[in-house]
From TrEMBL:
Function: UTP--glucose-1-phosphate uridylyltransferase catalyzing the conversion of glucose-1-phosphate into UDP-glucose, a crucial precursor for the production of glycogen.
GO molecular function, one term: UTP:glucose-1-phosphate uridylyltransferase activity
Quaternary structure note: Homooctamer.
Enzyme Commission identifier(s): 2.7.7.9
This protein's name: UTP--glucose-1-phosphate uridylyltransferase
InterPro entries: Trimer_LpxA-like_sf (IPR011004), UDPGP_fam (IPR002618), UDPGP_trans (IPR016267)
BP-aspect Gene Ontology terms: glycogen biosynthetic process; UDP-alpha-D-glucose metabolic process
Entry's transmembrane regions: none
Family, as annotated: Belongs to the UDPGP type 1 family.
Amino acid sequence: MSVACEIMIFNTDRINLLLASSDLYVSLALKVPPKRMLSIKSTSDLLILRSDIFEASCSGLILSPRRKSLDLPTIKLGSRLKSIEDLQRRIPSTPSMVNLSHLTLSGDIYFERNVILKGSVKILAKNNETIVIPEGTVLENQVVIGNFQNHRRSVFV
């Protein structure tokens, strides 16, 4: 994400600290509509933010003009992707999700580079199985259960 201007990021948790300070003579609060705020409370939220769904501009992050829907995708991550460390280890290069509507990942799953996810995608690794999504894979409206080797490289359903 390279932008020729500085993007200001403000952590709203610091508001409580600032309001508690006795050095403040005047306090001010802003009401931000939900559509203008993107909270990051889980790794699924972080995955959306890291993806190509958003682009950086001088005014902050904006929804990519390439995205067909104004709604953000629904992302459900299994227990193996709940920590930031797990997310970075299993998905070191965030797949393209600009045209993704739903994503479900469950089990022992790893992504290689340049993966594209479109529509509704579910990847479910069975117990004691690992699924590695190979580099350059395109999954569109696809359910992957078990070993990925049984699936074609690019799948459009």
